């Protein structure tokens, strides 16, 4: 084993043999100031392919295709110099993209992929894609009118409540506006997974950035869920220690129940401070969307009885948004002792990417079937992970294909309750011993 791997295993407090097959430990994973740009730059170092894009074991130069990419140029610009196998396979349901690759072929890769995941033609994920392809060709992959109305309606409700709260200096209305803003952002998350569109910018009405979340959420969390390459795990450390590390402190295991009530209203403010810092250091590039929340502040100060009242209203709105967004986000689908986390027994014999996604996700029975809840609480999460570029309003058409594929591969599937995941989050935080049983998707605790 390379020294880097040994060092990484010690840093992560995981035995080297329990690592999920990655060739090395992620560059800058333990940096005290984590950021999406550090993550993607670190991945360029780890993948080490020069100015190309890697898909499976081949290198491509798609520079001339950037301006013609149907999903928008940002996706290719962000991933230049990295292995995009997982992103390519999950983003493209049809075979059209694969048919174009030969036009950009450069050469074979010199070393094995850093990622352990496989995409065999007879494997789970490729089989699922073949089953779902004719369904999506019939119903489409874009948003329905109802989905657009939910997204635009939430944004309008936020604006109206925010203006009312500022003009009347009403904190109750400000809290309601903050919740509406959080729901707007969670719904906009559906849109930033897709090709470039203006609704993805609703996410920037919060103190977060849709551009950065395309990296941290779409390219990191979605592709390497609950692994050492999942920045949505690492950026919460050491306050939320979801990995089964043996040296967790008592406070890390049990104190979260108390101190997260202080952290959650401030999480988005802390992210905003980091974003400003990275803008000054040059790590991040300025985008006009960065000004959206501060334009809100300006408007509220103009319509409020005083500048101070406007500032307080704005602060309450974004505190409520931070609390709601963080609270929903960290309990929706990925944190429970029965769910795979880095350090648990990995699917060494069959690390099909689709199966590994199923191991790391749970779906809530109360959410499925209601598009509003799906859009505003990260619902239909298994299908969303398998088909991230398919609009939430079209995912329900894909359940029959998912169930049929699970049956074909003898994979049990069942929904769990929101309460089970809520409890599971704290059980997961308290756990300091890895699960050494082979992964079994959706297996109930005996």
From TrEMBL:
<comment type="similarity">
    <text>Belongs to the cytochrome b5 family.</text>
</comment>
<dbReference type="GO" id="GO:0046872">
    <property type="term" value="F:metal ion binding"/>
</dbReference>
<keyword id="KW-0812">Transmembrane</keyword>
<feature type="domain" description="Cytochrome b5 heme-binding">
    <location>
        <begin position="55"/>
        <end position="110"/>
    </location>
</feature>
<dbReference type="InterPro" id="IPR005804">
    <property type="entry name" value="FA_desaturase_dom"/>
</dbReference>
<dbReference type="GO" id="GO:0020037">
    <property type="term" value="F:heme binding"/>
</dbReference>
<keyword id="KW-0408">Iron</keyword>
<feature type="transmembrane region" description="Helical">
    <location>
        <begin position="171"/>
        <end position="192"/>
    </location>
</feature>
<dbReference type="InterPro" id="IPR018506">
    <property type="entry name" value="Cyt_B5_heme-BS"/>
</dbReference>
<dbReference type="GO" id="GO:0006629">
    <property type="term" value="P:lipid metabolic process"/>
</dbReference>
<dbReference type="InterPro" id="IPR036400">
    <property type="entry name" value="Cyt_B5-like_heme/steroid_sf"/>
</dbReference>
<feature type="transmembrane region" description="Helical">
    <location>
        <begin position="147"/>
        <end position="165"/>
    </location>
</feature>
<protein>
    <recommendedName>
        <fullName>Cytochrome b5 heme-binding domain-containing protein</fullName>
    </recommendedName>
</protein>
<keyword id="KW-0349">Heme</keyword>
<dbReference type="Pfam" id="PF00173">
    <property type="entry name" value="Cyt-b5"/>
</dbReference>
<dbReference type="InterPro" id="IPR001199">
    <property type="entry name" value="Cyt_B5-like_heme/steroid-bd"/>
</dbReference>
<dbReference type="Pfam" id="PF00487">
    <property type="entry name" value="FA_desaturase"/>
</dbReference>
<keyword id="KW-0472">Membrane</keyword>
<keyword id="KW-0479">Metal-binding</keyword>
<keyword id="KW-1133">Transmembrane helix</keyword>
<dbReference type="InterPro" id="IPR053100">
    <property type="entry name" value="Cytochrome_b5-related"/>
</dbReference>
